[in-house]
Amino acid sequence: MPEMPEVEGLAQFLRERAVGRALTGVEVGAISALKTFSPAPTDLVGRAVAAVARHGKWLDLATGDDGPHLVFHLAKAGWLRWYDAVPAAMLRPGKSPIALRVRLDDDSGFDLTEAGTRKRLAVHVVTRPEEVRAIETLGIEPEELTAQKLGELLTAKNQQIKGLLRDQSVIAGIGNAYSDEILHAARMSPFALTRSFDAAATERLLEAIGAVLSAAVDEAAGKPAKELKDSKRRSMKVHGRTGEPCPVCGDIVREVSFADSSLQYCPTCQTEGKILADRRMSKLLR
């Protein structure tokens, strides 16, 4: 799933190419992806893109102070495919992985695509992005965190730190991959309970959040949309690297599997050499 650094990379990519361009066509390829009916997608046509913003993992194309916004979330298997010249043929609903096609006045544009059978990509056309409930309820952006604010979030509810980092209503934009990377950088167990964090641990976590995400944003900056996924995979130290050596200590990266996801960690760096069996059985770091 694209997370904050990749979505910010996409936002930068679109700012450079779409801002100032008028939309000449918006074609829906998957009705299930469109979550709103008014304004209609056709209400975007003829309006110029005034700005491109990011809200957590959401992208927002604004068409002026009084114009509608095209807001979308790429979900687990979605992506943005850019064209310098969009195919001339009109999009046929249900015939391809393309959920939405946007055409601009210089013949460029993009598709929103989604692989697989579990369709979760979401497209909203709204007058304000806050009309999307998932945006209205987003937590703090990572770059706005302070030690005091992070401490407040950690003590608000006693839960596993992995879950807190992934909770979009607490901190916006961090998902499964970067939470693994942040906890590895901070040398913390994913199952550590948040109310066990003292001031030193809180500061260490804050530094890891800033360092990991800043490096990832820098890595994504300036890259074409088609290169962002591969760039993300290459930069991972533990996420998605089960069975490989940890680049810090050389221990083998381990995995904990869940129903529809998994996490990766280094026992030496994060759990004092102990192997986490699974979420229910582990009693580590209470």
Automatic annotation (TrEMBL):
- Per the similarity annotation, which family is this? Belongs to the FPG family.
> What is the originating organism of this protein?
Georgenia alba
Q: Does the keyword Metal-binding apply?
A: yes
Cofactor(s), by name: Zn(2+)
Which reaction(s) are listed as its catalytic activity?
Hydrolysis of DNA containing ring-opened 7-methylguanine residues, releasing 2,6-diamino-4-hydroxy-5-(N-methyl)formamidopyrimidine
Q: Which Gene3D superfamilies match?
A: 1.10.8.50, MutM-like, N-terminal
Q: Which PROSITE patterns match?
A: FPG_CAT, ZF_FPG_2
Formamidopyrimidine-DNA glycosylase catalytic domain residues are 2-121
Q: InterPro entries, per this entry?
A: FPG_cat (IPR012319), FPG_N (IPR035937), H2TH_FPG (IPR015886), Ribosomal_uS13-like_H2TH (IPR010979), Znf_DNA_glyclase/AP_lyase (IPR000214), Znf_FPG/IleRS (IPR010663)
Q: Does the keyword Secreted apply?
A: no
Per its record, how is this protein called by name?
Fpg/Nei family DNA glycosylase
Q: Source taxonomy lineage?
A: Bacteria, Bacillati, Actinomycetota, Actinomycetes, Micrococcales
Q: What are the residue boundaries of the FPG-type domain, all occurrences included?
A: 237-271
